[in-house]
Design goal:
The chain is α+β, with helices and mostly antiparallel strands. It has one helix and six strands, in the order E-H-E-E-E-E-E.
Length: 91
């Protein structure tokens, strides 16, 4: 059986930013890694979206660097998210 890819978005401009981080961590901790590939996207308090590399972290990553900034693109390959390094993994 092929793993299902799931995007987890967390953070945001809300006053509930920190609550969202806790909720995302709880969801991630309860997903079966043998059944799901995770794509983590943290939303900064300013509202920008950042792809997070889970392999570098043991806790919920929240790196707001220019290297991880997600930009929407209009591409023909049905992959609308990109970072300065290239396209994100297909969701």
């Amino acid at each position: 059986m092929q793993k299902l890819t799931v995007a987890i978005l967390y953070g945001g401009k809300s006053t509930e930013h920190e609550v969202s981080l806790v909720s995302a961590k709880n969801i991630i901790n309860h997903l079966d890694a043998t059944k799901f590939n995770l794509v983590l996207i943290a939303i900064s308090p300013q509202g920008q979206w950042y792809w997070q590399n889970m392999t570098k972290h043991t806790s919920l990553p929240t790196e707001f660097s220019a290297d991880n900034l997600i930009q929407m693109t209009m591409s023909q390959d049905k992959q609308p998210f990109a970072t300065p390094q290239g396209l994100l993994p297909a969701i």
